User: Which sequence fits this backbone?
């Protein structure tokens, strides 16, 4: 099993540019989560999808952030325009909904906005 | 959401058992306790979970008190590679499907020679 795959692993961009982060969940999983981790705020949930449908996006910081899941095997998190305060590590996780649906995390994308 | 309380840091000698405590006094009857760890610069790694019975797997053991208000994660023979931040989480099941993990600050475990 390949696990959750994220790309790119590192992204450096300039303020104002559009950034797109990608995630491929574990095959067969039907829930997908996007998290952000910073030193100040720790690990926080941004949005989660169940069966490709966004269920809760209350953690998305503002309108500059958007996430999509066009099919069961792919999701994107887009930031437009990016700002220096968006610099963080972004993790994607997936799980199989059920009584004990354990979330499995990807390796993360380290984003630096200059 | 049920909140958890963990000590900010702990040290353990290599080869000894590491016992990491967690308080979750407001846990509800159907909420699971999950443990994850995060080794520097990596994604959180699932360790173990339980509802009310003690659990054991190849990584660790989880001891949950009878009143379910606290639990202890046990790494039976800690190695240097177990140095990480350990998170105790009470999982919340969400309407609409899926679950929510709210990560606190965790316990920084340092395993030393």
Assistant:
């Amino acid at each position: 099993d390949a696990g959750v795959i994220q790309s790119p692993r590192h992204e450096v961009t300039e303020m104002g540019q559009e950034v797109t982060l990608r995630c491929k969940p574990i095959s067969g999983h039907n829930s997908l989560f996007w998290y952000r981790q910073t030193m100040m705020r720790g690990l926080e949930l941004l949005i989660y999808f169940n069966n490709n449908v966004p269920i809760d996006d209350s953690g998305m910081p503002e309108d500059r952030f958007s996430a999509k899941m066009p099919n069961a095997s792919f999701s994107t998190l887009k930031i437009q325009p990016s700002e220096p305060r968006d610099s963080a590590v972004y993790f994607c996780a997936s799980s199989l909904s059920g009584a004990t649906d354990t979330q499995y995390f990807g390796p993360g994308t380290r984003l630096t906005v200059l | 959401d049920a909140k958890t309380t963990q000590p900010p840091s702990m040290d353990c000698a290599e080869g000894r058992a590491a016992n990491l405590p967690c308080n979750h006094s407001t846990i509800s009857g159907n909420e699971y306790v999950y443990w994850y760890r995060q080794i520097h610069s990596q994604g959180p790694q699932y360790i173990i979970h339980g509802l009310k019975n003690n659990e054991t797997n190849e990584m660790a053991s989880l001891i949950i008190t009878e009143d379910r208000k606290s639990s202890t994660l046990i790494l039976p023979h800690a190695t240097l590679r177990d140095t990480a931040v350990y998170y105790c989480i009470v999982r919340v099941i969400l309407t609409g499907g899926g679950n929510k993990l709210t990560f606190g600050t965790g316990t920084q475990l340092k395993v030393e020679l």
About this structure: Residues 26 and 69 of chain B are 7 Å apart (CA to CA). Chain B is about 0% helix and 50% strand. The first strand of chain B starts at residue 9 and ends at 13.
